[in-house]
Amino acid sequence: MAMIRKIAALIGCLLPVQLLAQPVAIENLRIWSAPDHIRLVFDTTAPVSHSLFSLKNPSRLVIDIENVTFDGNLPRLGVDNPVIERLRSATRDKKDLRVVLDLKAEVKPKSFVLKPNRQYGHRLVVDLEDIAFSDTGETDTPQPVKSVAEGNRDIVIAVDAGHGGEDPGAKGRGGTYEKTVVLEIARRLERLIKQEKGMQPVMIRDGDYYLGLRKRMGLARSHRADLFVSIHADAFRNSRARGSSVYTLSQRGASSEAARWLAERENSSDLVGGVKLEDKTDLVATVLLDLSQTATRQASHEVADQVLKRLSTLGKTHKSSVQQAAFMVLKSPDVPSILVETAFISNPGEERRLKDPRHQQKIAEAIMAGIRAYFSSHPLPGTLLAKTAPRKHVIARGDTLGGIAQQYQVSLSSLRSANKLSNDRILVGQVLHIPET
After folding, report:
1. DSSP string, 160-219
2. In the predicted model, what is the mean pLDDT of residues 253-279?
């Protein structure tokens, strides 16, 4: 009996080793093309060990994956793939897989493995950054805005379609992906902004590819966006949940981002309102950042309120007021930012509406109407809209008459005269006419 127990224990010790030695299956290879990189995703049945190395003359990237099987076919490449010329694979040593990418351009490869999530199992991800792109000087540092003349620049609206590529976002019961419908709405909003005199759209994601959240923020800032609008579709375990929502950054989210900026300012070229933090004392940097965040959060809330009012005309809103959360894409200290949850894709009725091009257009028009209403009452100094439209200011909590005069660079007496004010008392919601300077 003792001998049997010893043999059983020995088998128990050897069994995990034998199981680990079994080859992992590669179930699929997916390729996503973004403007600045290509992503390859290997779907695997378990974690894999791998290595990368590059070869020149001609340029190639070799991906070796240990102890795997692959019985499928490599995906076809589009003729317009900017980086990869050809894909090929072969088995090595009867147990490993080698994938070779013949390249059109030199790339900077990066790889990592991902654990399973709600949509996917184990994955090996290989990102190829086009070195020619990274050498063009593209950075997250704000660049000058194009304008035809001083004081005639357009208001820049960054339109961000959430998720993308291997990150599909929420999925409706009918199989609709969030990433697909929000991109359609974003493109419709882009077209509406193009038609608006004095406004210029910037699409943050304009295809089915993945972008990191800080990358989205950085792209908006690099185009000196005056407003960042992120478009999503909500989901909940209760399929009866419905209605749209609009979010701005919470105080907690603002505080955490301020701490990060202040901690990294010496090694960062980031700007806050066009002012560098890296050469400022702790006190000055803190004050500058606090002022920038306060103004940005106030503007964000006012835009969000205007957008929510217009969305409410399309049907029930999930919440009757603007919500706050610590969403990463809302954290730019100097770019007013809102996140629009257009509907609940987990609700079968709202999923059908989100797929309907006519309803997509109505959502885009509602968001556009809210943006237009905000900038009509808050025309930015130096923009064409400020030059051509009568200037108005809607009093918000914390506003003072002197502060408004300073904001619009007009005298306090002229501001009183234009609005027939006998004193400096103002009320929240009151509309002031801003005189010409």
Report:
1. EE--BTTB---B-TTS-BHHHHHHHHHHHHHHHHHHSTTEEEEES--SS----HHHHHHH
2. 69
